[in-house]
Amino acid sequence: MPKIGMEPIRRRALIDAAISAIGERGALNVTMSDIAGRAGVSTALAHHYFGGKDDLLFATMRHILTQLGNEIRPAIAPLSGPERVRAIIAVNLSPEQFRPEIIAAWLAFYVEARRDAALGRLFRIYVHRLHSDLLSGLADLPRPAAIRTARGIAALIDGLYLRRALGEGVEDSRTAIFLVEDYLDMALARHTPHGSALHG
C-alpha cells in the first residue's frame, strides 16, 4: 500500500517523469512502465495513482496549464493595455515554457485533444482563457480588430510551439517572443496614430 503522505510527492514525480518521457519519445511511444521507472515507482503504483496513460496525460497537461496560469496571473495583474499583452506573450514563450520537453507535451496535447473528450475540454478552457486574457489588453482597439489580433497572437504562439516540436522554426525563447511582439506592434500601428499606444 502507498505510504501515507507520499501520494502528492509521487504523483508529482510521475507527472515530471511523463513530461520527460514525452519530451524524448512523443506521447504515442510512452508507456506507464517507462514513466514509472523514471519516477522510481512500480508500474502498479503508477496505475494506482492515475489509472492509465490517458489519465496521466490529462493530469500532466492540467499541471502544465496550472503552472502557466500561476505565472501569467501575477505577471499581468499590475498591467493594462499592450503591456498586458506583452506580458502574456513573454510568459507563454518564456524559457521555462519553451523547453523541448514542455513543447513535446503540448504537441501530444494538441493531438490527443482531438480524440479524448476530457483533454478536449481542457484544451478549450486553455483557448478561451488565452483569448480572454489577450482581449483584456486590447480593449482600446475596435472590437473586431481586438478579436482578430487576439486570434493572431494565439495562433502564432501555438504555431511556434508546433514547429519547434517538429524540429523547425525558432529555437530560443527570445526570438519567439520578438516574432509575436512584432505582429502585435503591426496590429496596434494600424489603429494607433503614430504608434503612440505601442508601449502604453
TrEMBL record:
<dbReference type="Pfam" id="PF13977">
    <property type="entry name" value="TetR_C_6"/>
</dbReference>
<keyword id="KW-0805">Transcription regulation</keyword>
<comment type="pathway">
    <text>Amine and polyamine biosynthesis; betaine biosynthesis via choline pathway [regulation].</text>
</comment>
<keyword id="KW-0804">Transcription</keyword>
<dbReference type="InterPro" id="IPR036271">
    <property type="entry name" value="Tet_transcr_reg_TetR-rel_C_sf"/>
</dbReference>
<dbReference type="InterPro" id="IPR001647">
    <property type="entry name" value="HTH_TetR"/>
</dbReference>
<dbReference type="InterPro" id="IPR050109">
    <property type="entry name" value="HTH-type_TetR-like_transc_reg"/>
</dbReference>
<keyword id="KW-0238">DNA-binding</keyword>
<dbReference type="InterPro" id="IPR039538">
    <property type="entry name" value="BetI_C"/>
</dbReference>
<comment type="function">
    <text>Repressor involved in choline regulation of the bet genes.</text>
</comment>
<keyword id="KW-0678">Repressor</keyword>
<dbReference type="InterPro" id="IPR009057">
    <property type="entry name" value="Homeodomain-like_sf"/>
</dbReference>
<protein>
    <recommendedName>
        <fullName>HTH-type transcriptional regulator BetI</fullName>
    </recommendedName>
</protein>
<dbReference type="InterPro" id="IPR017757">
    <property type="entry name" value="Tscrpt_rep_BetI"/>
</dbReference>
<dbReference type="Pfam" id="PF00440">
    <property type="entry name" value="TetR_N"/>
</dbReference>
<feature type="DNA-binding region" description="H-T-H motif">
    <location>
        <begin position="31"/>
        <end position="50"/>
    </location>
</feature>
<comment type="function">
    <text>Repressor involved in the biosynthesis of the osmoprotectant glycine betaine. It represses transcription of the choline transporter BetT and the genes of BetAB involved in the synthesis of glycine betaine.</text>
</comment>
<feature type="domain" description="HTH tetR-type">
    <location>
        <begin position="8"/>
        <end position="68"/>
    </location>
</feature>
